[in-house]
Design a protein that fits this description.
This protein is mainly α. It folds into 2 domains: 63 residues, Arc Repressor Mutant, subunit A (Orthogonal Bundle), CATH 1.10.10.10; 43 residues. Helices cover 74% and strands 0% of the residues. It contains 4 helices and no strands. Helix 1 packs antiparallel against helix 2, helix 1 crosses helix 3 and helix 2 packs across helix 3.
Amino acid sequence: MGRRSRFSAEVRERAVRLVLENEGQHASRWEAIGSIAGKIGCSPESLRKWIRKMEIDSGGRDGVTTEQQDRMKALEQEVRELRRANEILRKASAYFAQAELDRRPR
């Protein structure tokens, strides 16, 4: 399972909003990210990833949205469970077929 962040969703959203609002006051976006990251206590790279994720989720950037990732994760889990169930059924079927062959005729 994924690691839980020590920052809540509200803190992440606020940090992203602060970067976007104060971007004009800095020479570059990276400089704005570094400034805000230092104030909230996260790494600049983490904040950059939060911004990128927000842009993808809002449709401003190409990529797989959080909703799509969650859906794919659920479907992959379902596929694993179905494959496991199929393997169990296959083995049970082979066991009972062999038992039927081993049974003595009357």
